[in-house]
Each structure stands twice: as C-alpha cells, then as structure tokens.
Amino acid sequence: MTYTLVATAKNEAPYLLEWVAYHRMIGFDDILIYQNDSDDYTDETLKIMDRIGAVRYFYNRAAAGRHQVRAYRRAARQPEYRDARWAMALDLDEFLHIRTGEGRLDDLLTTLPDTDVVLVNWRRFGNDGHRHIGKDLVTETFLSAEPAERIETHLTPYKALFRPSLYERCGIHRPQGAQVDEDSVLVCNGSGLRRGAFEELRFRCKDPGRRRLAQINHYITRDAASFVLKSNRGSAHQANRGIGEHYWAKRNFNDQKDYGLARRSSATMAAMAELDAQSDGELGRLRLRAIGLHQDRFERLMGVPEYRALYAYCAETQNAA
Q1: Whether residue 155 has pLDDT greater than 80
Q2: Nearest Cα to 198, choosing from 158, 253, 251?
Q3: Residue 121 forms beta bridges with which residues?
Q4: How far, in Å, CA of 91 to CA of 19, rounded?
Q5: Which helix (H) or strand (E) is 20 found in, with range?
Q6: Residue from 94, 100, 76, 175 nearest 139 by CA
Q7: Which residues pair with 188 in a beta bridge?
Q8: Which residue intervals of 128-180 are DSSP H helices?
Q9: What is the pLDDT of residues 93-110, one digit of tens each?
Q10: What residues contact 250, with CB distance under 8 A and at least 6 apart?
Q11: 258: Cβ contacts below 8 Å, ≥ 6 apart
C-alpha cells in the first residue's frame, strides 16, 4: 500500500528534519514538499533531502495567499499522487498521531471499517509555558493540549486521509474535485465512526469517540518567541489574516497533558539521525543553524514595540479562552 504526503513550507527549517523523519517513520512512502521564498535554510535543507531521497522538493511560485492551493494543484500532476493508494496534506506544524497498533499508517487503515476518506481531527497544543526557541523536538517540548472531551461538544477542524483515485487533488482540509458521485464515497472519522454518527459542518466535525484511533497534533502556537516570528511572517493561505493576541488567545490550549508522540521521541530522533547520516551531517548542521537564525530574528523583532508587546502578552497568557 502506497502513502503520499503533500506539504507546503516557508521559513520552517528548524522543524523540517523532525517532521520529515517522523512521517517517514510512520509509513509515508513519498513526501512532496513545496516551498516559496524562504530565507532561513529551508531551501537548502529541502535540496539535501531531495538529493538523499527523503522528499521530493519543488519551488512553488504563486501569488500571495495562493501558495497552498497552487502547491496542491501541482502535486496532483505528480506520479507519487496519481499512483498512491492513500494521500494526505499536512502543514509543518501538524503531525499525524496514530493511536492504534504500532502507530503506523497500516495499523490505522487495518483498524478502520472499509472507507475511502478518513477525517482526522486536530488536537491543538499550546506553548506549555515555553517562551523561547529551543533545540529539543517539537513533539517532546509541547505536551499540553486542549481537553480531550472538548471535541464531543465543539466542531473541530480536520485533515483528510483519502484515496487519490477518487479526487482531483488535495485541499487545505479535505480533498477537492471528486471524480465519482460523492454519495458513494465511504467516510469515517479518526475514531472509526461512520459519517452520520458525528456532527459535521464544512471542514469541522465533532467526535463522540474522542479521536480514539488517530488525531492531528497541531502545534499551532509553539513557544511565545516562535509565535512572534509567525506573526511577523503572516498566514500561509490567508494573506490578510492577522496573527496576534486574539489568535493566540483562541488557540493556546494548555489544559491536559498528551504524551503520545513524546513517548516516540527516541524513535523519532533515531529516524532523524539516519537521515542526517545519509547527508553526511549536513541536515543536522543546517537545523542548528536555522534555530540560531530564528533566535536572532526574534531578538531583532524585540526592538519593535508592536512585537515586544505581543511577546509580553504571549509569555503571560497561558490558556485559550
């Protein structure tokens, strides 16, 4: 069974090695990454990953706010998408967390009922009290998340794992361009519940099963300093969307601990080390260089009153409203 993952990136170099190594580890055979206009070693990192066969890397020229959709259209023309049995689109702050078997894609698909689309809900993770950009793994640094039971009463965004033979391309949350009558498509959620057993609206749904089999760990805020950089960078797919205090206040959940991916940190680091060895150490060196660059950029932004005030707010506001 072939699994393909599609992603877009801009100035994500500190996180690339962990994200790619982890998703290869859980069973994605092909990873297509589209990058635009980065200046933090993202381009250099992806070129090395492409060279060693860890990903396929494409530069993604597009109008402001259109990079994700353009990338998904371009990815649909690639054989890795056309020939895959299953495909998914994720961002670099999203990790597919499979909570059954050995935590691999095969384990998830064999556990689910016969299906064509799996709607895997986010679980939002907060900054867990972290203020500064560090060198540890994202998945072992940020351990606090929204309450598990919240998804029973709140419509929560999902990302879709789907059969690409049925759809023209990936979408930001769900596949686009159905090639068959959508009434014939079998849909379930990350608890294995059939469509109709849970409430759904556009790209959000509830889950009475509380993400029993799979969830998307969404590290949407990370630490306060990284959030300031995110605010300065702006939204990847909504050019005019502000990322400031209101954004942080709605999304920085630190209610319950979730150690699921932290327990896999040794395996993730081993997968990272394997890729780094294939690059003769270049990937590890670039990761550390990128982290230092992000730290320097944050320090420069602290000279701007607007960003200094945002950092102070984030450093003191620890729980989403």
Answers
A1: yes
A2: 158
A3: 158
A4: 10
A5: helix 13-25
A6: 94
A7: 118, 194
A8: 138-141
A9: 999 999 999 999 999 999
A10: 320, 321
A11: 123, 125, 143, 144, 145, 148, 217
* Structure tokens given for 108: 């998830």
What are the helix (H) ranges across the chain?
13-25, 42-51, 67-75, 79-82, 105-111, 138-141, 224-233, 245-251, 265-278, 282-301, 305-316
Mean pLDDT on 34-46 = 96
Length in residues, the chain: 321
Buried b (16+ CB within 10 A) or exposed e, 120-140: bbbbbbbbbebeebbeebbbb
- Rounded to whole angstroms, the Cα distance separating 30 from 54 reads 8
Closest CA to 123 of 101, 144, 102: 144
Residue 278 CA to residue 291 CA, distance in Å, equals 21
Q: How many Å is the Cα radius of gyration of the chain?
A: 19
Residue 65 has what pLDDT? 78
pLDDT of residue 241: 60
User: How does pLDDT run across 223-267, given as a tens digit for each residue?
Assistant: 999 999 999 987 555 555 679 999 999 999 999 999 999 999 999
pTM of the model: 0.96
Distance CA 98, CA 190 (A): 9
User: Please, which residues have CB within 8 angstroms of residue 125's CB and are 6 or more apart in sequence?
Assistant: 142, 143, 144, 145, 146, 217, 218, 219, 220, 221, 253, 258
- Structure tokens belonging to residue 49: 């990953």
